[in-house]
Amino acid sequence: MTPFLQLIFVLTIILFASKLAGYLTTRLGQPAVLGELLVGLLLGPSLIDLTHLVFITDRHLSEVVAEFGEIGVLVLMFLAGLELHFSELTRNTRVAAFSGILGVLTPVGLGILAGEMFGYSFDNAAFIGLTLGATSVSISAQTLMELKVLRSRVGLGLLGAAVFDDILVILLLSTFLALSGGGSALDILLVLLKMIGFLSLSAAFGLWVLPKLSRRISNMPISQGILTFSLIIMMVYGLAAELIGGMAAITGTFLAGLMFARTPEKSQIEPGLRSLAYSFFVPIFFVNIGLSVDTHTLNLNALWLMLVISTFAILGKVIGCGLGAKLGGFNWLESLQLGIGMISRGEVGLIVASIGLAEGYINETVFSAIVGMVLITTLLTPPLLRASFRKVTVSSPAPVQE
């Protein structure tokens, strides 16, 4: 088969398997995203190794599938922002700030403790802590959308906390790399200024320029012009978040969705984008998380470390984010729900760990343990989150904390 036919074959298997697995898990009372994650694990190098079958000769195929998946997570977070209103999120900043900050510092501290327990140097232990501090909120956002509680107090607090989490993890990572590499306080200040610059520019453009452009483009005789425009802005925000702010691209696309949520054109954008996302890109993203994990790399030397840091990773987010939410005014159940929603490390944890491996701060054994931790936290989050909302019914957006 030609490389193109190989791509079509792999995408066909991924899409069919993801929808079948999602259907089966919903029949079992679990979120569809859990089935998509599990089927990705089965199709990946842990069992079938779909992108490296004997008749697959294109060695770049797995990279192409992964890039489709990255588009999927960008669209997913854009849709999450599109479902909210900027005023709803800003009124919930106290919970978001407390949860985001404590939800990073607590697991980072526990990660350092785990590294020290296993006899690693402080630099190695610190990097283990940084991987535990990261959060991938895309898994939780999808689960909350399935449960129709994304606009509840917990959903709003979760998304706000994720923004604070992203900023703080990047600051801590940049500080660590600068200090260990002989950098100065000026380097750290530059990172902070870049973040402030990106957030200021994105807010200014979204509040004052975007509504006018959206209105003008929606009135033009262009087929699906406003939908295409929204995709362009989504990708520009994602690029700007990475290149200007030094932040994750998903933070940028989430902010882009928030800005479009303020415009009358939202009703034109959302149906088309939702169909495009959930029929193609988003299933590939969730399956690709499993495709990127090889459980054969989890050697026995890494097993105990994996179990310890996985336990600390879960407790760190539940306790840290939960306590932050409680301090912000949530009740105990809401605090627990928010803490559970922040457990997943997903692709963000793998990115931080890959930086540590490339820079020599962690070895292959530690990296294998972190991969196992990422897998465990990512798979546990959807069923735990669903269980925590089992007796909660939200028919309309709940009032947010002032």
Automatic annotation (TrEMBL):
**Keywords assigned:** Antiport, Ion transport, Membrane, Sodium, Sodium transport, Transmembrane, Transmembrane helix, Transport
Domain Cation/H+ exchanger transmembrane intervals:
18-384
Transmembrane segments in this chain: where? 6-25, 37-56, 68-86, 95-114, 126-144, 156-179, 185-210, 243-261, 273-291, 303-324, 361-381
Where is it predominantly found? membrane
Q: Which residues form a coiled coil?
A: none
Q: How does it sit in the membrane?
A: Multi-pass membrane protein
One GO cellular component term, please give it. Answer: membrane
Superkingdom per UniProt: Bacteria
Presence of keyword Transport: yes
- InterPro entries named among the record's database cross-references: Cation/H_exchanger_TM (IPR006153), Na+/solute_symporter_sf (IPR038770)
Gene3D superfamilies in the cross-refs: 1.20.1530.20
Q: Where in the cell is it found?
A: Membrane
Q: Name one GO molecular function term.
A: antiporter activity
GO BP, one example?
A: proton transmembrane transport
Q: Can you tell me which family this protein belongs to?
A: Belongs to the monovalent cation:proton antiporter 2 (CPA2) transporter (TC 2.A.37) family.
Q: What is this protein called?
A: Cation/H+ exchanger transmembrane domain-containing protein
Can you name the source organism? Bellilinea caldifistulae
